[in-house]
Every structure is written in structure tokens, then in C-alpha cells.
Amino acid sequence: MALTVPVLLGAAASSQADAVIASWNLKHAGWNNGKHLEQVAAVASHMDLIGLQEVMKEEVVSELEQQLEALTGDEWDSLVSHAVGRSTYTERYAYLYRDKTIAYQGGATVYLDPEDVFSREPLLATFVEKDSGRAFSAANVHIVYGDSKADRAPEIRALADIYDLMKEISPGTPAIIMGDFNMAPDEPAWGDLRTLGLRPLITEGATTLSKTDGRYASLYDNIWYVPSEWPSASGEVFRFPDYLGISHEAARADVSDHAPIYLAVTGETLALLPLDGGQPQAAGTEVASRASNASSSASQTCIDLNTANADQLDRLPNIGPARAADIIRQRPWSSSGQLTRISGIGKGTLSEIVASGMLCS
């Protein structure tokens, strides 16, 4: 059941359990653009709470709920904002959440924006992780793109006011700011938020799908959080074209030109739910230790570090010809964790490779 959110006061609160929290720009969801909602649901079924941007019609969220319930066997619910935007172009924010894992605690609000800084005022809400009973506040944001970074910077700086509001409403409880920020996390405009102790969950790689097949362009999507409030959390990019076994061209046309990012509260990585004939099997959210290699049947043949050729290795996230040659040169490999021996492969890149599900166990 979707709940349309009015302009009210704020929302907030604290969390620490095995929930998976995600953010995803769905690229004009609800327009008559041939979006494949069954593929959107296949990806979203791995999450427990998803903040969505670029929701163009409220009805598409209800359709996604139905897809997720049929796919997972779980009850899902949602919050949807009213349309926001200064010009003829408007969009909505939404939260989708799995009822058995996440509860909406109340107080959803579209930020009042007293200084009229935001083109699309963020959606704030309070949720509770049911197993632990711990709550957290979330702000769902889509920063204006404009003509340059100078157009985006005022909204980025004003996110400090959003965070202050969440903390004022629920003192001492964790809060996150998620969304499509149209700005990389290392830009100077983030200084005010960093001063408050917030840091980006994703620091390496990119989240926007390039028009060049198999490549990613910019790190615009993120979740900003205070690490001490989420001491076990980890973050990844969910490279859904690899999971669904589709090209970037098909992904941009049928699903989105952004990959979702997720925060695993207990620091685990997703075990990708198997696909059956190209369609996901009904199942709930599963998480697995980082030490295990999540697998997906989206690809008919997995990539073996010890036998794959350079072209096959180049298909792995952020590898490329030079690193593929280094992998071949440094064989044999006893585990994927050893890939950090390769120059340019840090823990973040390694996590992306493992999370892609393309490696053989």
C-alpha cells in the first residue's frame, strides 16, 4: 500500500542489524518508456529498504510492490512524496521496504526548505529495523544537475541543514542521506557535511552506466553517513547489468542508467539470488560473508582467475587489459582475496568484483 507524503515536519531515529538499505535512481520510472519492472524487481528483491529517485508517477511504485511480493513471497510497503520541482519537470521520491524486516515509524516529510535552495526538496522519513528494534532516519535526495558544478554546489552544501534537522528531531540516533547527488564525493562542496562527521559509503568506482558498453562513468550515487554510528556497515555498487545478463545499452533502455548502491548494516555482502531462465527465483533477502563468492546464473560461464584469458578477465568490474595481464602473470591464485596484490585493486574494487557474481567459486 502506497502512502502519499504531505509536507509536514521532520523525521528521524537509529539502526544496527542485518538490514540492507539501498538508493537507486530509476530514470523516469512511470513514463511510457518500456521500463522492465520485472528486472527492476529482480534487483530490488535483494534489498530491505530502497530509496528511489526519478519516480514520475505514483502508480509505478504500487506496480513494483506487486512485482516484489510475487517474486519474494514477502509483504512490501511504500512511501511516495508529492511531485517536487520548480519547472514543468517534476518527479517524486519513494521508499520501498520489506515489511518483515523494516517498519515505517512515522513522521514522513518533504523538507520545507526555508531558504528555497533545493529544486527538488528531499524526502525524510523514520524507519525501524524490526529484529533489533533500532530506528534510523533517512533523507532521499536528487540534486539538480544544472549547467555546471556551480549549480549543484548550493544544494550539496545545504545537505548539512538536512542532517542538522534530522538530529534535532531525534537526537543521538543514526541518520543517512541517500540519493543521486550529481557530484563525486571528493568535491569541495561536500566540506560542510564532512565537518559534521559524515562520509561517503562508496569512495571508489562509478555508478552511472556509460553509453560505452560495460563501462561506468561517474560516482554520483551514494549514501552519506557517520561511520561511528554504523560501525559494522559496508557499502557496494550493485552492478545490475552483470547480474541480469544484459548489455549496458539494454540496461539504460529497460531499467536505468544508474546502478543502485547499498549499505549492509552488519558489513556483509549480498548473496545474489539465482536467476531461473533469466528470471529471478522467488526468495527473500539473503546475505553472505565477504569471504564467500556470491554467485549468479545470469552468466552461463563463470570466470576462473587461473584459466580465463585476458578478454574474459577484462569483463570483471574495473579490471581492464593491464590488470588482466597482471592477473595472468601472477598465477596461480588460491582465492579472490589475493587480488589486492594487483596494483590498483583495493578492498573496494575487490568487493565490487566479488559482488558481481562473475567469479567462479
The SSE string, one letter per element, is EEHEHEEEEEHEHEEEHHEEEEEHHH
- CATH fold topology of the largest domain: Deoxyribonuclease I, Chain A
Number of H- or I-type helical stretches: 9
Shape by Cα distribution: globular
- Spans of at least 5 consecutive residues whose pLDDT stays below 50 are 1-17, 282-300
> Structural class of the secondary structure composition?
alpha+beta
Percent in helix:
10-25%
**How would you characterize the largest beta sheet?**
7 strands, mixed
Strand order of the largest sheet: 1-4-5-3-2-13-12
CATH class of the largest domain: Alpha Beta
pLDDT averaged over residues: 86
Task: Give the gist of this structure.
The chain has 361 residues and is an alpha+beta fold. The protein is 23% helix and 24% strand. The chain has nine helices and 17 strands.
Features:
single chain; 361 residues; alpha+beta; Deoxyribonuclease I, Chain A; 2 domains; disordered N terminus
Q: Layout of helices and strands, plus pairs?
A:
Elements: E1 2-5, E2 20-29, H1 37-44, E3 49-55, H2 59-72, E4 76-81, E5 92-98, E6 102-110, E7 123-129, E8 134-142, H3 149-169, E9 175-180, H4 191-195, E10 199-200, E11 221-225, E12 234-237, H5 240-244, H6 248-254, E13 261-264, E14 269-270, E15 275-276, E16 279-280, E17 287-288, H7 310-313, H8 320-329, H9 347-355
Parallel strand pairs: 1-4, 2-3, 8-9
Antiparallel strand pairs: 2-13, 3-5, 4-5, 6-7, 7-8, 9-11, 10-11, 12-13, 14-17, 15-16
Helix pairs in contact: 1-2
